[in-house]
Amino acid sequence: MAEIRVQNLQKKFGEFTAVKDLSFTIPGRSFFCLLGPSGCGKTTTLRMIAGLELPSSGSIFLGGEDVAFKRASQRDIAFVFQLFALYPHMNVRQNIGFPLLCQGVPSAEIRARVEETAKLLRIDHFLDKPVSGLAGGDRQRVALGRAIVRRPLAFLMDEPLGTLDTEFRDLMCEELRRLHDRIEATTVYVTHDQLEAMSMADYIAIMNRGVIEQLGTPQAIYDRPATTFVAEFVGSPAMNLIAVPASLAKGSTSVEISGARIAIPKTREPALNGHFILGARPEHIYFDDASKFRGEVFGTEYLGTTQIVTVSIAQGQVKARIPASVKVTAGEQVGLSFMGERLSLFDKATGTAIKTALHEGGQHV
Amino acid sequence: MSDVSLKGVSKRFAAIAAVSDLSLDVADGEFFVLLGPTGAGKTTTLRLVAGLEKADAGSISIAGRAVDGHEPAARDVAFVFQQFSLYPHLSVFDNLAFPLRSPARRMPEDEIKVRVQEVAELLRMAGKLGNKSTQLSGGEMQRVAIGRALVRRPSIYLMDEPLSSLDAKLRSDLRLELKRIQEELGATILYVTHDQIEAMTMANRIGVISEGRLIQVGTPRDIYESPQSIYVAQRLGQPQINLLPAGLLPAGHLPAGTQTVGARTEHIAIEKRKNGEAAVDWIEHLGDQNRLHVMLGERRITTLIAPDAKFQPNDRVSLKLVKPLCFNAAGDRIT
Q1: φ, ψ for residue B246 (rounded to 5)?
Q2: Which helix (H) or strand (E) holds B265?
Q3: Does A236 contact B176 at a Cβ distance shorter than 8 Å?
Q4: Is A167 on the interface with B (CB under 8 A)?
Q5: What is the CA radius of gyration of chain A?
Q6: Separation of alpha carbons B302 and B241, rounded Å
Q7: Do A192 and B220 touch (CB under 8 A)?
Q8: Mind giving me the DSSP string for A1-46?
Q9: Percent of chain A whose pLDDT exceeds 70
Q10: DSSP annotation string for A110-145
Q11: CA-to-CA distance for A134 and A125, rounded, in angstroms?
């Protein structure tokens, strides 16, 4: 399965630049997610890789060959759309075999490959059923089967699970990932759902306004967001961002906020313009009566094992994820402490991360 | 008193019993969520209350008044649909004012202005009243759609998955907003969803519905901690509850007749041990939670771990259950 390399890719629609000078490499056999809010350019990027949209400039290498200006039909890829359409007058077997029929593959081979594909998707027991009676999940599997039966160099998927129930989506996420592990096809998957990306991807590229803000493994992105945009987009609830009106010298190991000393990972560069942002994931904040960093409980959201507690502090609101067994009532005064070694720091003006000890020893991609 | 009461309500569509003998009371000022998968009958229930469908049996009363046979307009309800539809040629103000300008209501224009302004402030949309509805983001459009229901002050708001077409971040913002608005207004809401997070975080009480039947009603904590059956236990909680045959793992004393034990994260004590009976398969980092997948023979057990927990794939571990949920052969909870 092929590597996909995108170089200086640009796409303009009139005055509007949808994709700005994008360069990245998708290693062969990997599951790669383009993640971002609507309008960030992720679908446009995917459509350019597919050949459904021509770039304004730049190159796209598919298995070493520049295909940027080739027709979609000349690229060996398969596209799975958000709304899967099946041919209602054909049965499951005919639906899956259709792309091969179009390519003029002999019928004995079609038969063999359809059956092999159906086994992979575990739908071989209803190959001769009409598609009209199938449940949503089985229809989705048939649509997937039609995409993978050709064994193309790469699969491109545009929010294929977007229209499904949450419960069912979790199941399909797991199946898609397992399917990927079995056929080891390079997959480019577009979604705005961070949970889908986190649960399936080997690598995630987070896009915003036509550029990639960060590219890395799900864990690296979650633990060490490169920008405040990434910090807020990945994670639910989002990372807490607390603005601090102070400068930070290189080598700092703590900061003072509202009279409380808070430990931070040792800074490797200074931030001297008088403002920085402290970023804390909700699970890295805990209640601590002894802490001088205090606030008032605004509300709680019960989630079973854990609860999200929103606390009003001088700088705004922060959300902490704590065990559901802790009794918390709105209006209560609480002290908050942080897991110092897990905190992120950002430059307030640019929103980019300040280098700290957190960025060392970890895996960089 | 704007409570809603359903007594023995049934509705069939040809051969399918969409709602079967359903009885339910929603108290004044309560946020009641019907939770169930697609096809469980939750939307039909909502439509029956609204008067968009006619029940085959049973009776429905709103604010102490039987409404069976009443037209939807005479029932004093407001309905918010999944797919919000605003009038694209109208401003936010005119969209919000539209229900009040209905000829049946004959509300004076200055009173309309006051109402719309109030609701816009509640929705944090006061600055955008002059915008065309097409100039709004998805989240803002849905807020206006909710606002159009709010201006009317009906006895009850009926909401059919109003957040499901929004993206994850907006959905979580609007969850908190909707709950805040409901509390500020003291509004009575009957809300249907298949999303357990929405149900857990917003509801005063949840009704778990399956195949047209109401299976259990209780506060989110009741339903999560004391499910009546395996079915209910599987509806709430992420990751889904682990179901294991009784006796597979040490669990202390179990009630007689226990066939299956249900173990959530809080029921599982796990520790690294050289000769442990189970092995860590992998650690799934979902961002907001880290899931530890442990293989015990052929069985997978999934539990949450703290972000600072030190587990590695292939670590041998030993598991113990602490006060798990116990179910008999029929899948009913026993204690």
Answers
A1: -60, 140
A2: none
A3: no
A4: yes
A5: 24
A6: 8
A7: no
A8: ---EEEEEEEEEETTEEEEEEEEEEE-TT-EEEEE--TTSSHHHHH
A9: 96
A10: HHHHHHHHHHHTT-GGGTTSBGGG--HHHHHHHHHH
A11: 13
CB A309 within 8 Å of CB A363: no
Question: What is the rounded CA–CA span in Å between residue A200 and residue A223?
Answer: 17
According to DSSP, the residues that pair with A278 across neighbouring strands are A242, A345
User: What angle do the packed helices B109-122 and B168-185 form, to 10 degrees?
Assistant: 120
Of A166, A283, A304, the CB nearest to B195: A166
Tokens representing B238?
């992420």
**Lowest mean pLDDT: which of A5-19, A242-256, B158-172?**
B158-172
* Residue A365 to residue B7: CA distance in whole angstroms: 60
The mean pLDDT of A204-215, rounded to a whole number, is 96
Which are the contacts of A266, defined by CB distance < 8 A and separation ≥ 6? A251, A252, A253, A356, A357
CB B200 to CB A167 under 8 A?
no
> What stretch of H or E contains A219?
helix A218-223
Q: Please report which confidence band the pLDDT of residue A174 belongs to, taking 50, 70 and 90 as the band edges.
A: confident
> Which one of B176, B194, B236 has the shortest CB-CB distance to A166?
B194
Whole-number Å distance between alpha carbons of B160 and B308: 40
Q: Tell me, what's the pLDDT at A137?
A: 74
Tell me the β-bridge partners of A26: A4
Average pLDDT of the segment spanning B6-20: 92
B158, B78 Cβ separation under 8 angstroms: yes
Helix axes A136-148, A92-102, angle to 10 degrees: 20
